[in-house]
Each structure stands twice: as structure tokens, then as C-alpha cells.
Amino acid sequence: MNDELKMKWHSIYGQILFDRKLMTAWKQVEENKGCGGIDMETIETFKAAEEKKILELLQELRTKEYKPTPVKRVYIPKKNGDKRPLGIPIIRDRIVQQSIVNVLSPKFEDGIFHKCSCGYRPERGIERVMQIILWYVEHGYNHIYDCDIKGFFDNIPHKKLMKVLTKYIADGTVLDMIWAWLKSGYMEEGKFMESNSGTQQGGVISPLLANVYLNELDWELEKEGIKFVRYCDDFLLFAKSDEEIKRAGEIAKRVITDLGLEIAMNKTKFVDFHKDDFKFVGFNFKHWRERRDGSGKYFIVEPTEQSLKDFKKKIKDATCKTLTLSQEAWIQRVNPIIRGKINYYLYPYKAVEKNKQYGQVSHCYLKSFSKQLHAIDAYTRQRLRVCMQHKHPNVRKGFQMVHKWNVAYFCGIKLIPSNWLYYNKMYGYKMEDYIARQTQNWKKRTEKRIEKLKAQGKEYYTGSRLKGIAFNKNLVTI
């Protein structure tokens, strides 16, 4: 709900004035890692004297002498080539913000936040987003308004945000503290810059404040009977007709304007899912299509091309050939990346299975990107073939090891193939079946290549290739 509470929340500040509460918040900050702020304090240096520093911070809070420090402004690249500004608070500010979040978050989760708001919330996330999208699409809500708010975190009006907060919070000390964080400013190239609007991306409390502010949008959509799902500042509206979705889009635009924000028109569009595709949270939703055998319709959900490129880049960054590591160490570097990406790609499958528990028959096809996963696996193995050679590693030497360090070899040293893991999680695909299939496919590809070269009057087993095979069998050294 977004109505003003009759019984607002009092005595929030007093709930953080305990060393154990600050220590809990510090452990959460430590777990999230991250770099230090402008005071040069790092996670490691704070940890070295954590008890002393927590007690000093507690004393400042009890005497109300605590004041936030300006954040450190850094920039991270965006997908479109631009840079996104981040504000990195000092460790002490992060701890206090986390303490306030620990008190406020459960209160907002208890009936204030909408069930279709899924970003930065406990027990909600991409899987919940997928559940909602698939549910609406399967139930005929195929007219979609795909919307993005322009520079959301940078443009939230401070006074309007505080007005929303006062609908729930009556603790003046906490409200003053949040206002001080909003106005703390930032340091960039040694200069202090004021914060006139927005919340600092990188601040612990920013996601909560963002959800509190856009909770106004959520409940206005609810009051108008509009189906939606929101993940932070990105949201989708759903309707069963073109007229309904245009009406929904106008209502959303009006509410966003009233909040002092602006829709990013270059990232916003109306979609007819009977013929148009759309992208959301790293997945490509491909429109309804007829099955070849005429047995019905289906639609496709797969990772976006950008997500797959990011997967490949993460593998490349983790396999730097200038490092000299054991095979076990190399495997330990890439396996977490593979697990993380595949677990993300499995969200649509998990959502389908969850919706089935509520009686939803799925028409979603999830096996359209097997070839891309195989390509990433081949790329990973080739990167490792180069890295695992300690004497002047290069691409040529990597290709010479293809026969020796093949699919079965890498599986034997515990490299996780992304293709196998994806289908194993869904259908229990066995590793031995994966190895047998890949070995057979490799033999077929080799035979086809030999035949093709013969037809062109060329030799497959050239001198250099025979030398490479001999090297793989330890018959010669190169």
C-alpha cells in the first residue's frame, strides 16, 4: 500500500544503538566486499580493528555526533558504451546505512511493498520476475509496454522522496540521517560536488529508497487494475488489447511525471507479443510461433546476445596466459563463472516449474541456445589449452593440444561444461552421455572435413598436423 500509515514507525534510531546490531551490519558489509571510500579505509583495514571501530561508531551514534562523509565518485561502463556513475561511501557510513536497512526493510516488506516489485528484495528476484512474465503471457496478456525510467537513481527529487518516507516513518532522527546521506555530496578528481537530486548508486540504502519511491507507481498501477512487473527502475505492463496497453502506458507516464521523473523514450516501446520480441533482465523473449507439426503454439526465452558475450568475456578475463598456475587452479578460476551464468540462465526453467505447481501449462521453449553454450565450452577449453602450457604459451600450441586435452580430458579434471550443466539441472543429463556425444560429434566433424578437403584435392593430414598428433601422443617434442 502507499497510503499514509495511521500508526507510523517510531523509535527506529534506538534499535541500532547496540554493538551487536552494528557488528551484524558490519559483517554484511564485509560479505558484500567492495572498495573503500575517500578516507582510504578498506574492508581489510577495518577488520583488523573491527571491535574498537564499532564501539567508536556506536559512541558517535549515541551522542548524535555521527555525520556522513561525501562518497567517492567512480564510473563503470554501461552496455551502450556510456559510463554509469557510482558513489562509494566510506565503510562507517555503509555500516550505519546497513543498520537502518536491517530495521526498515522488514517493515516495508510487511504489506507496504507490492508483490510485483521484484528488485532488491529478500526472497524475490529474477525467478519471481520470470514467473510473473510467463504467467501473464500464458494467460493472454500479450500486449506489453516495455518501459525504462531515464537516469532514475540520479534524478530522484530529494524533497519528494522525503515526503514519501514521512508517510511511514515518524522518527525524526532517522529522517534527518537519510536527508544527510542524500545531501552528503561526492568527491571527484579532488573536488567536492553537491548532490541536488538522486540517491548514490553504490550506497547500501539506495536500493531500499528506490523501492520506497517507486512503490508509489506500483500501487497506482494496482488501483487502475493494470498488470505489471517491476525490477528496480525497469518495468513491464501487460494487457489483452492494444487499447488497454496504450491506456496503461499513459497512466504510467502520468504517475512517473508526477514523481518528478522522466521516461527514457529510446528504451521504451509497445510490444505485440504475437509478432514482436522484447528483452528484459538479460533475457530475450521471442514471440509466439506455430509448431512445424501443427500441434500448437510456443514462444522462446533465451539469454540475450549481450549476456552470452558477457559470459565469454568473463572466461577470457579469467584465463590470462601470462599467469602460471596449476591445472587445478585454472579450473577453480573458471568453474564459478560457469556455475553463476548457468544458474542465471536457469531462472526461466525454475519459473516454469513453479508456475506448473499452480496449474499453469507451459508453452515456453527453453532449449534454443544449446549451440551457443557449446561454442562457449569450446572457447573455454581452447583458452585453457593455452594457459596450461607454461613454456611460451600461444594459440598455435593450444591447437596442437586439441587431441590430448580433449572434452573427456577436461571433464576428467573437473571442468564444468556449461551445456552439460544447463541440461543436467533441467533433465538430469549425465556427464558420461555428454562426453560420448561430444566425442562422437567431434569424429563426425573430422570425417566431414576430411571428405571436404579430399573433394578439393587437399590433404587433411599435413606435416604440421601429423607432428602435432605425434606430440600429443608424446612421440616427439616441439
| Share of β-strand residues | 5-15%
Give the number of helices.
Answer: 19
Q: How many β-strands, per DSSP?
A: 12
Helix fraction bin: 40-55%
Radius of gyration: 27 Å
Write down the overall geometry: globular
End-to-end Cα distance, whole Å, is 72 Å
The chain-level structural class is alpha+beta
Please give the order of strands in the largest beta sheet.
2-1-4-5
The low-confidence parts are none
Q: Biggest sheet: strands, sense, closure? A: 4 strands, mixed
* Rounded average pLDDT: 91
Question: Care to describe what's here?
Answer:
There is one protein chain. This protein has 478 residues and is α+β, with helices and mostly antiparallel strands. It is 50% helix and 13% strand. It has 19 helices and twelve strands. The strands form three sheets. Strands 2-1-4-5 form a four-stranded mixed beta sheet, with no helix packed on it. A four-stranded antiparallel beta sheet has the order 6-7-3-8, sandwiched between helices. A four-stranded mixed beta sheet has the order 9-10-11-12. A hairpin with a 2-residue loop joins strand 9 (278-280) and strand 10. Helix 1 packs across helix 3, helix 5 crosses helix 13 (347-356) and helix 9 (206-223) packs across helix 10. The termini are far apart. The mean pLDDT is 91.
Q: Can you tag this structure with a few keywords?
A:
19 helices, alpha+beta, about 15% strand, four-stranded mixed beta sheet, single chain, about 475 residues
